[in-house]
Design brief:
A hairpin with a 5-residue loop joins strand 5 and strand 6. This protein starts with a strand and ends in a 7-residue tail after the last helix. The relative contact order is 0.11. The protein is of the alpha/beta class. The chain has 14 helices and 24 strands. It is globular. The chain binds nicotinamide-adenine-dinucleotide. The site of nicotinamide-adenine-dinucleotide (NAD) has 24 residues, from helix 6, strand 10 and strand 20. Nicotinamide-adenine-dinucleotide binds next to helix 6, strand 10 and strand 20.
């Protein structure tokens, strides 16, 4: 079967499906080729099922602290199989939701693996590699995403040395797990598995966990993780990982150069991702890459006219919401609109361990390095009435202003609901708002959000409750 479309999208993650729906809404004929579940890693094996597991971890922690709230719960217990099943059901529901949106918007879903034949033609094969159909399109968007990478020489065997995908569907809570890498994935799984009783050890190469976050914020998480008795080796090098007798030995050199063997039931590799560019015919049509990531211009057009790339496959920041923003920009540009450029200075970054971490814009170190003189405001949740009422007093809000312009450069939150509270600061950073723009905005009382305005006031010594 041969068909022609205005737009063909390769991949149906938060980049691909948003691009497909957006183009359909603009009246275009659209097909989306997907080799696996609709919704990509985010919905099926990333953002969403992890949040479901984290909800269970949060509930389990609360149940275990019930006596603090005056409840007598004797011997609470959990069924890990049911917990995993719930997370799979949530992922399945959302994937079905995207199928529904495709139908509603008349996007044709083509199941199979797509490969370029020429810059306007994609050949789709089934799981066995048999060619199913050839599709042509005026424009093509590559949104094939990324997958976990490993340390060279260490193979993710999916049984003992696992990636985030296996970590989402373990049969049971392992007695012990070593987590290599303390970015968002490493830290979230550390929190999940520690909450359910595993002995968790983190190994991070850089000098702090969550290395992209402000140092002071990462210190708060480190303190909280120490309280949870998560072991952390920071500034450590992984030398090798050996599997023997149903155990994994992760051999590391700690920051002082001492060799340590960490023995565990599982070792989770969470050191970042690599682009899915193999076997899709990029070389055939001459699409340029940069260490694997597809090169694009500011409108996401690749080195080949009419072929675009968005999302993880073009490189950092590899985040679902960035992919979706790039999708909308690319589609609007293709169809003659004049969209604003994606503002990479105002991308929220969220990590959903407890305490949650959320940030936007520059850290204190990056703002200083960029030559700004800073006014910094802070507010600790322990001084916020709502935080005390709900028993969530860990953490703080930190905001960073430029002294000369009084423009907000960055906002950083660690604590309960940080990932919800950050949106206000994203708007402020995106719109380059000044202290005067922000200072009189009324925040509901009592609310955790009052901590945001108090931190803003504190930057200019106008806070009431500090
Ligand atoms: P990451 O890049 O965020 O973090 C990887 C971590 O591994 C870094 O801290 C890095 O310093 C460390 N590392 C690298 N090599 C190492 C080594 N040899 N030994 C020890 N540590 C090493 O990657 P990730 O956590 O795997 O996540 C993958 C992608 O998915 C990221 O782009 C991330 O932002 C995204 N993601 C986002 C969320 C979220 O927003 N909540 C959740 C999960 C994943």
């Amino acid at each position: 079967m041969n068909s022609h479309y205005d737009l063909l999208v390769l991949g149906s993650g938060p980049g691909g499906y948003v691009a497909a729906i957006k183009a359909a809404q603009l009246g275009k004929s659209v097909a989306c080729v997907e080799k696996s579940e609709v919704g990509g890693i985010c919905l099926n094996w990333g953002c969403i099922p992890t949040k479901a597991l984290i909800k269970n971890a949060d509930m389990w922690r609360s149940l275990n602290e019930a006596d603090k709230f005056g409840f007598n719960l004797e011997n609470p217990s959990f069924d890990f199989g049911k917990i995993v099943q719930r997370s799979r059901e949530v992922a399945g529901k959302l994937s079905k939701g995207i199928n529904f949106l495709f139908k509603k918007n008349k996007v044709t879903l083509i199941s199979g693996f797509g490969k370029f034949i020429d810059k306007n033609t994609i050949e789709v094969s089934d799981n066995e590699g048999n060619i199913k159909e050839t599709v042509t399109a005026d424009s093509i968007i590559i949104a094939t995403g990324a997958r976990p990478r490993s340390i060279p020489g260490i193979e993710i065997d999916r049984k003992y040395i696992i990636s985030s995908k296996e970590a989402l569907v373990l049969d049971d809570v392992p007695d012990s797990i070593v987590i290599i890498g303390a970015g968002a994935i490493g830290v979230e799984f550390a929190y999940i598995y520690k909450s359910f009783g595993a002995e968790v050890t983190i190994v991070e190469a850089l000098p702090q966990i969550l290395p992209n976050e402000d140092e002071e914020i990462a210190k708060e998480v480190t303190r909280a993780f120490k309280k949870l008795k998560i072991k952390m080796y920071i500034g450590a090098k992984v030398q090798k990982v050996n599997v023997a007798n149903n155990l994994v030995d992760t051999v590391i050199e700690d920051k002082k150069g001492k060799e340590i063997i960490l023995s565990s039931q599982k070792t989770l590799m969470a050191i970042g991702v690599q682009p899915n560019i193999e076997n899709i015919g990029l070389e055939k049509i001459g699409i340029e890459t940069n260490v694997g990531w597809i090169k694009v211009n500011k409108n996401y057009e690749t080195s080949i006219n009419g072929v675009y790339a968005i999302g993880d496959v073009i490189g950092a920041p590899c985040l679902a919401h960035v992919a979706s923003a790039e999708a909308i920009h690319a589609v609007e540009k293709i169809y003659g609109h004049n969209p604003a450029l994606v503002n990479y200075n105002a991308v929220p970054g969220c990590t959903y361990c407890q305490p949650q971490v959320a940030s936007v814009g520059l850290t204190e170190a990056k703002a200083t390095d960029a030559g700004h003189e800073l006014k910094i405001g802070k507010f600790y949740f322990r001084a916020n009435g709502k935080s005390l009422a709900i028993g969530e007093i860990t953490g703080m809000v930190k905001v960073i202003f430029d002294t000369k312009t009084n423009i907000i450069l960055g906002g950083h939150i660690v604590g309960s609901e940080a990932t919800e509270l950050i949106s206000e600061l994203v708007t402020a950073v995106d719109k380059q708002m000044t202290f005067d723009d922000l200072k009189n905005i009324i925040h509901a009382h009592p609310s955790l959000a009052e901590s945001v305005i108090e931190a803003i006031h504190d930057a200019y010594n106008e806070a009431i409750h500090v």
